[in-house]
Amino acid sequence: RTLEIWLRTALEKGELHLAYQPVVMANDTRVVGFEALLRWTHPEKGVIPPYKFIPVAEEARLITPIGEWVLRTACMEAANWPADVRIAVNVSPEQLNDPNFVTSVVSALAHSGLSPSRLELEVTESVFLREGTRAIAVLDQILGLGIKLALDDFGTGYSSLGYLRKTQFSTIKVDRSFVQGAAKKSAESLAIIRAVVAMADSLGMTTTAEGAETEDEFQLIRELGCTKVQGYLFGRPMPAEDARELIATAS
Ligand code: G
Ligand code: G
Ligand code: MN
Ligand code: NA
């Protein structure tokens, strides 16, 4: 409850900011994008981690105004980057239920001047759970704008694969539990990553392996044929200025 009360004013007090984590190509480690990750620094409590406050924001319906701010801020920042660097933004199921969602996305693009093809929205399988048909319709409108979709945390939810026929995802993000499991020689994790990569290939989607922390994990991901990699090995979520510097030095 107290968290909710603080969160209500966090936006206007400027306590929220975005961190940007690089996404690189698995074949040559070129930086091809960043994922925007929300951060909250409370003046007295210090840093409050997303796993604590995002569920609160979702329940209190604060995720809609916060999500709009995230989209606008991320698009404005990405508009400064070279045209071949994309921005990925996480979207909660609650946001897809907001009747103004598509309008707010259009407005974030218009205001920033960012090309729609440079924006990727990340949703989890859970958006298809409740009111699945409505989520599909909203995601169709998003695709119609030329925006890309990524399926986040793949393999950790309630994997029904039916929606993969109905919604055109560009990318499947393989949850880091599989990446780290595979690196620890878990035969199951290895088999699952192989299967996901094969499925993505045949459906015309790319894969992003999450949570690569070591060179061994990265080599394994490469061998397994994942398209892109995200993880501490290539960069932690960082301030906007550091992301710009990384782009400048990497190109
Ligand atoms: O750094 P990490 O702890 O940032 O993020 C934890 C979780 O919080 C991630 O799984 C991510 O999906 C979620 N998250 C981070 N930023 C946002 C955001 O802007 N919007 C939503 N809805 N979720 C976010
Ligand atoms: O939206 P999603 O759940 O995919 O958010 C990515 C989460 O994973 C964020 O919390 C981010 O900080 C975290 N993350 C990114 N790279 C790594 C990594 O290499 N190791 C670990 N442990 N976490 C990571
Ligand atoms: Mn994500
Ligand atoms: Na994820």
Automatic annotation (TrEMBL):
Q: What name has this protein been given in UniProt? A: Diguanylate cyclase (GGDEF)-like protein
Transmembrane helix listed as a keyword: yes
The EAL domain is annotated at 1-251
* Keywords per UniProt: Membrane, Transmembrane, Transmembrane helix
Classification lineage: Bacteria, Pseudomonadati, Pseudomonadota, Alphaproteobacteria, Sphingomonadales
What is the native source organism of this protein?
A: Sphingobium boeckii
Keyword Transmembrane in record: yes
